[in-house]
Structure formats: C-alpha cells, structure tokens
Amino acid sequence: MYEQDIQSNETIFGKILRGEIPCNKVYEDEHILAFHDISPAAKVHALVIPKKLISSVNEASEDDLTLLGHLQTKIPEIAKLAGCDKHGYRVITNVGPNAGQEVFHVHYHILGGEKLSGLNPML
Ligand code: 5GP
Questions:
Q1: Residue of 103, 109, 110 to test ligand 1 pocket, by largest number of atoms within 8 Å of CB
Q2: Is the distance from the beta carbon of residue 38 to the nearest atom of ligand 1 less than 6 Å?
Q3: What is the pLDDT at residue 123?
C-alpha cells in the first residue's frame, strides 16, 4: 500500500522499513511500524512510525487523518507490548531543529517503564 513511499524514504527509518537495517520490532501492521529506540532515554523507549512518507507533524495533512488516527489509537497496545505498565508513559513527537528532531520521518516516542522527570526545563 505504501510501497512507493517506503522505497523513496531516504531516512534511517526508510532503511528500517525496507529491512536494510534491523530493528527490534514491537508491533507492525499494514499502516505502521513500532520498534525499540536504539539509544533509549528511559527504561522503555519505543518509536512508532507510519509507513507513509511524512517528514514531521508539520507535513501531515487532512489526507493523513485516518492513518494518524490509527497510529494514535494503537499507542496503548504498543506501549504495553514495549513494556510500559499501568503507571503510564509519555508520548512525544519532535518537530524541527528547536525540538531536536534528527530523523525527518514523523515518529512518536513512547517513554516509560519508570517514573519520568517533568517536562518543564526549569524543574
Ligand atoms: P528524534 O530526535 O528525531 O525525535 O528521534 C530520533 C530517534 O531515533 C532517536 O531517539 C534515536 O535514538 C533513534 N534512532 C536513530 N537511529 C536509529 C536506528 O538505526 N535504530 C533505532 N531503533 N533507533 C534509531
């Protein structure tokens, strides 16, 4: 369904989608892929990506409503599969350089498995 997008995805996540580099997979269906982050920032750190080529939240459009809605509603299942428990987790997506986005294929970080620090940088 997203074959053309997957072939033209020049990011590291494109390589993962094409199976050119391995990932520690958490979940996959025809629309999305989730895998453990290679450099975890918490005890549980998974990434969820759509198979459609979208650089960041800024590039998402009305056409992506169903896909991104699907991704979002799968997050609880993926978080549980990745190792998060009833105590919760955090979902983050970085957009652009101010947020430190390094990979320009939209992805949602799921962080958990432990008590996380606050988001306020002054804390
Ligand atoms: P960003 O900073 O763009 O929001 O997050 C990119 C994330 O991708 C980082 O947390 C980084 O550790 C992760 N990452 C980068 N390269 C790879 C890789 O080859 N495999 C996996 N599993 N994660 C990666």
A1: 103
A2: yes
A3: 59
Kindly write down the DSSP assignment for every residue of 87-114, as one continuous string.
T-EEEE---SGGGT--SSS--EEEEESS
Ligand 1 centre to CA of 109 (Å) is 9
95 lines ligand 1 (CB under 6 A): no
pLDDT along the chain (123 residues), means of 10: 96 98 98 98 98 98 98 98 97 96 98 92 67
Smallest CA-to-CA distance from 56 within 92, 30, 90, 93 is with: 93
Its pTM stands at 0.97
The two three-digit tokens of residue 87, written as one number: 């105590």
pLDDT at position 119: 82
Residues 6+ apart with CB under 8 A from 85: 112, 113
Tokens describing residue 109: 């970080």
